[in-house]
Automatic annotation (TrEMBL):
Family to which this protein belongs: Belongs to the aldehyde dehydrogenase family.
UniProt keyword annotation of Iron present: no
Coiled coil start-end: none
PROSITE patterns (alphabetical): ALDEHYDE_DEHYDR_CYS, ALDEHYDE_DEHYDR_GLU
Organism: Fuscovulum ytuae
Lineage: Bacteria, Pseudomonadati, Pseudomonadota, Alphaproteobacteria, Rhodobacterales
Pfam families: Aldedh (PF00171)
Stated name of the protein: Aldehyde dehydrogenase family protein
Length: 495
């Protein structure tokens, strides 16, 4: 897929009509307050979302339940469901540039990355799980005697999915694709600051032949629409990506309602660890900058804590500052932009507070940390490198979800491992070393879902993303994700 600036600009000039909810295959108004959509590119109003009230959400969940119970989707031949999901992947690819531009106007991710990370990975994800449909099936257990024990794998029923704003289409596809592939119905609640591409995805799903009622989308505020979804007695499984605070609430809602299973992906404070014996320190410095600053730091696996061996700290910081200064921050619709907009004003203000607070606590702001390009009206931040951050500081422990890198030095491998694990999170990590034994010791020792060695941030749909500790539970992507969307049932038969 190639992109040219003229096409981007043409698509970006199109007005976006007010949005509606998708319930039972019909586009309907919400009963709640509409939610204005502000583009982070220029701070201007782009359009508005329908606000789904608790009653709207209840309707969507009831429709999803009925669609599951009557077998209009789960009852189709596997080859037919597979064809529909492949068709959806085709449609995502055919509309990739349109989807990427719409998403960037909504959430501010730089377009060069958005095209690959959003429609690109969404299409790949739908294809992957489409292919799984007729390749994942039950088992015959090795029982003793005259007994036949069959283990069936069945869809769970209605899946509620609540997703965030940083990569809505990609993360949405990580939930919706395996859920639909296994025959479930879905009610999706996108983030209020990034709903547009997922509404378009739902439109494409209808066009591809997903039966009405099987895939529903309710937009609105988390505390209204999201809460109603999480409390719904019709939802069997809730899958979520977002903040730890919301994750905690979802567990409460589950306890207060029907004990629905909750699978949570809750972000991280991932250590990127540079040893003095790294094969190429200059390359590591460039990669460390991208590990935290792409998508303006709004990446759940971002390498947001740089742990660097003290003997190379000064040289490394210099190379890192140089690599960061060379990054082009600006309008995310420009093809040359490497760091786009911060998603919202509230997010930007939170980022700035982290920098100010760490400075007041004695850390050293090596570069960046200020709001820039204010004349555009948009939300941009000069990527910040903050050195000499102590493990007791908030910047060391809490997820900023912005372009702010915390740097801490270590002396020994044991200290590096200790600092790496000195966090409540456990999503990702990076290790830079030419010592094979050390690389494997760190992979074993770090409590995280993924440890990158001599690179940072690579992934695809074939590998799980599964948080340890307070980064969550359950896996997105890979065949392991199917566990969340299927139930096991044993048939114990006397012969
Ligand atoms: P962030 O702070 O990064 O925006 P959130 O966890 O608040 O992360 O948001 C992730 C998703 O959770 C969004 O779709 C948001 O609307 C939703 N959400 C927020 N609060 C609640 C809540 N109380 N109940 C259900 N969903 C919520």
């Amino acid at each position: 897929m190639t992109l040219d600036q003229a096409t981007i600009d043409r698509l970006a000039a199109k007005p976006v009509p007010p949005q509606r909810l998708l319930i039972g295959g019909n586009w309907v108004e919400g009963e709640g307050e509409p939610v204005p959509v502000i583009s982070p590119i220029n701070g201007a109003r782009l359009t508005e979302l329908a606000g789904a009230s608790a009653a709207d959400v209840a309707r969507a969940c009831a429709v999803a339940r009925a669609a599951f119970d009557d077998g209009r989707w789960a009852g189709l031949a596997p080859a037919d469901r597979k064809r529909v999901l492949h068709r959806l992947a085709d449609l995502i690819e055919a509309h990739a540039v349109e989807l990427a531009v719409l998403g960037v106007r909504d959430n501010g991710t730089e377009i060069s990355m958005a095209l690959k990370a959003e429609p690109g990975s969404a299409a790949a994800t739908f294809r992957y799980y489409a292919e799984a449909i007729d390749k994942v099936y039950g088992e015959v257990a090795p029982t003793a005697g005259n007994v036949l024990a069959l283990i069936h794998r069945e869809p769970v029923g209605v899946v509620g999915a609540i997703v965030p704003w940083n990569f809505p289409l990609m993360i949405g596809a990580w939930k919706v694709a395996p859920a639909l592939a296994m025959g479930n119905s879905v009610v999706l609640k996108p983030a209020e600051t990034a709903s547009l591409t997922l509404l378009r995805l739902a439109e494409l799903a209808l066009e591809a032949g997903v039966p009405p009622g099987v895939f529903n989308v309710v937009t609105g505020q988390g505390r209204v629409t999201g809460e109603a979804l999480a409390l719904s007695p019709d939802v069997d499984v809730l899958v979520f990506t977002g903040s730890g605070a919301t994750g905690r609430r979802l567990l409460e809602y589950s306890a207060r309602s029907n004990l629905k299973r909750c699978y949570l992906e809750l972000g991280g404070k991932s250590p990127n660890i540079v040893f003095a014996d790294a094969p190429d320190l200059a390359a590591a410095a460039k990669a460390a900058a991208m590990a935290i600053f792409r998508n303006a730091g709004q990446v759940c696996v971002a390498g947001s804590r740089l742990l660097v061996e003290a003997s190379v700290q000064e040289d490394f910081l210099e190379a890192l500052a140089k690599a960061t200064a060379a990054l082009r921050v600006g309008n995310p619709l420009d093809l040359g932009t490497q760091v786009g907009a911060v998603n919202s004003l509230a997010q930007l203000e939170g980022n700035l507070r982290f920098v100010a607070e760490s400075r007041a606590e004695g850390a050293e702001v090596v570069r960046g940390g200020a709001r820039i390009l204010t004349e555009t009206g948009g939300y941009y931040m000069d990527p910040a490198i903050v050195a000499r951050v102590a493990p007791s500081q908030r910047l060391f422990r809490e997820e900023v979800f912005g372009p702010v890198l915390a740097v801490t030095a270590f002396e020994t491998e044991a200290e590096a491992l200790h600092l790496a694990n000195a966090t409540d999170y456990g999503l990702a990590a990076g290790v830079w070393t030419a010592n094979l034994g050390r690389a494997h010791r760190m992979v074993r020792g770090i409590r995280a879902g993924v440890v990158h060695v001599n690179t940072y941030g690579g992934a695809d749909v074939t590998v799980p993303l599964a948080g340890a500790k307070q980064s969550g539970n359950g896996a997105d992507k890979s065949l392991h994700a199917l566990e969340k969307y299927t139930d096991l049932k044993t048939a114990w038969i006397q012969l």
